[in-house]
Amino acid sequence: MMNFINKLKLKLEDPLPGLDAQLEMSHVLRRSVKPTPADAQKAGVLILLFPKNGEWHVALTQRTSKYANDKHKGQMSFPGGKMEESDKDLMETATRETEEEVGVDRHKINVLGKLSTLYIPVSNFLVQPVVAYVEEEPQFVLEENEVTELVSSSVKVICSEEVRKKKNLRISEQMTLNHVPYFDIQGKVVWGATAMMLNEFVAIIKQIIDL
């Protein structure tokens, strides 16, 4: 299994698929790319790989819905959050937030590299996705004020065409988005920025393994 990890680490040092891969899983309204504002807040999220049943899995979280001001409440996401002044870089942000949200010891997290940054207009965050792994399946402990559920899926399943779907998505009482691309992960709708970041990860995986 470590052969996959070693290949992934090397591939993350190459030029990344970038915006083209991200936009493949974006809604048409998201494809009007604009410059990132100077006042955008920095954030880091973690694409965490862990071994389970002889395969590498990826962890996703469902955000709590109880905070009215959270523009991403109830959505599927990667563990992560806003960069704090005490963080030396966004990789530290991603691992710290992962420990806080799902209970994975940050000192056991091995960072492999980074994906392309992604600006999220609705919350004004410039997000840095970080790719990492742990050597053993974690005993996840959820921070209930932030996370309601943790869902995982194998890399093989995430890279399959069967999980790529489209649907009309009601995002508020006033707005429904039509034909939204998403990943169907364990029955959960992974869309928006998380789907865009995940798709760049998938594009990289497809370069290093036969599916």
Task: Give your account of this protein's structure.
- There is one protein chain.
- This protein is of the alpha+beta class and 211 residues long.
- It has five helices and eleven strands, in the order H-H-E-E-E-E-H-E-E-E-E-H-E-E-E-H.
- It has a single domain (2-161, 192-208), classed as Nucleoside Triphosphate Pyrophosphohydrolase (Alpha-Beta Complex).
- The strands form two sheets. Strands 1, 2, 3, 4, 5, 6, 7 and 8 form an eight-stranded mixed sheet that branches. A three-stranded antiparallel sheet has the order 9-10-11.
- The longest helix has 17 residues, at 192-208.
- The mean pLDDT is 93.
Q: Report helical residue fraction.
A: 10-25%
- Mean pLDDT over the residues: 93
Which class do the helix and strand fractions yield?
A: alpha+beta
Ends: how far apart? 15 Å
How many β strands by DSSP?
11
Please report the first level of CATH classification, the CATH class. Alpha Beta
What value does the Rg take, in angstroms? 16 Å
The CATH H-level superfamily is Nucleoside Triphosphate Pyrophosphohydrolase
Poorly predicted parts: none
Please give the CATH architecture. Alpha-Beta Complex
**CATH fold-level name:** Nucleoside Triphosphate Pyrophosphohydrolase
Helix-strand pattern, N to C? Answer: HHEEEEHEEEEHEEEH
| Total count of helical runs of at least 4 residues | 5
Q: Supply the number of structural domains.
A: 1
